[in-house]
Specification:
It contains 3 helices and 8 strands. It has one domain: Cupredoxins -  blue copper proteins (Immunoglobulin-like). The N and C termini lie far apart (44 Å). With 145 residues, it is of the alpha/beta class.
Length: 145
């Protein structure tokens, strides 16, 4: 192998080593007494990082409903811990499909919030289907930097 090929292969390994893994729990009863909540509801990660979405039971999942341009959408299976890699910078909004009405929503910020205005518009459109805990996502948006 030539030096360029070796350098390329090594750089791929370094990228994987630097990627961090985070956990978001999808729970019926949260640590502070909140119900139908993502913990944490807001998380800031770096491009290439992984989030392991862990549902507390078979009724929870995580499904994106707003992603940056060019990003992959995601939908985890119900009741099964699933890892999602975030390769595109921006703001991702997601929900637990059967519990959206109860405000079971979350926000992932990957690097810079390049699509913040679009994500806020998407939330305003989705907000009408939420009956309880509408303020959760509004509070998560306040943490975006």
């Amino acid at each position: 192998m030539n030096k360029l090929t070796i350098s390329f292969v090594l750089s791929l390994g370094i990228t994987q080593v630097n990627a961090a893994e985070h956990t978001v729990n999808l729970v019926t009863s949260g640590e502070n007494g909140a119900t139908m909540v993502m913990e944490p509801g807001y998380i800031k990660i770096q491009k290439g990082d992984v989030i392991n979405f862990i549902p507390s039971d078979a009724t929870h999942n995580a499904q994106s409903f707003s992603v940056p341009d060019g990003a992959k959408t995601f939908m985890t299976p119900f009741g099964k811990a699933t890892k999602v890699t975030f390769d595109t910078q921006g703001v991702y909004l997601y929900k637990c499909l059967p519990h959206t009405v109860l405000g079971m929503v979350g926000l992932v910020q990957v690097g810079n919030a390049v699509n913040l205005a679009d994500a806020k518009k998407d939330w305003q459109a989705a907000k009408s289907s939420v009956v309880m805990n509408k303020e959760r996502m509004d509070n998560y948006f306040k943490k975006v930097n």
